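Changelog note: in this version the structure field was regenerated for every chain. One regenerated record is shown below for reference.
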Amino acid sequence: MELTNRYIGAEPPRVPPPFDASRGELRVWDLDGPDCSDRRWRREVFARLPDALGVEIADQYRILWGTDGRRAANLLLLGIRERLAGYRPATLWRPFRDEDLRAFARRKAERNARRLLVISQEVVHPG
């Protein structure tokens, strides 16, 4: 499935990512509108996440962008940003190893994929 930029048909400017971009940020760098506003605020969210979790969230963001559009993907990150408010990045994930976070994110992604499948089947076959 090829993902396209669903921002009024406009492509974001070809700007290279910052040298200190996180792995999650790099995975979604190409998704943005012409004003690059998504890149700016996504950077703030991904900077607060451990790399492994950031990559998992970026993958979910990319899927949402491709299936449900820019707004749905940004609402996902907005919810994460709101949940992280008040936490210092250094202390937030200290007790977790990358492997634990990866497994947790995978379980959540699988659960959400199952929910999406059920919802899509209800839309196609109501009743």
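Spot check on this record: Residues 23-124 form one domain. The radius of gyration is 16 Å.
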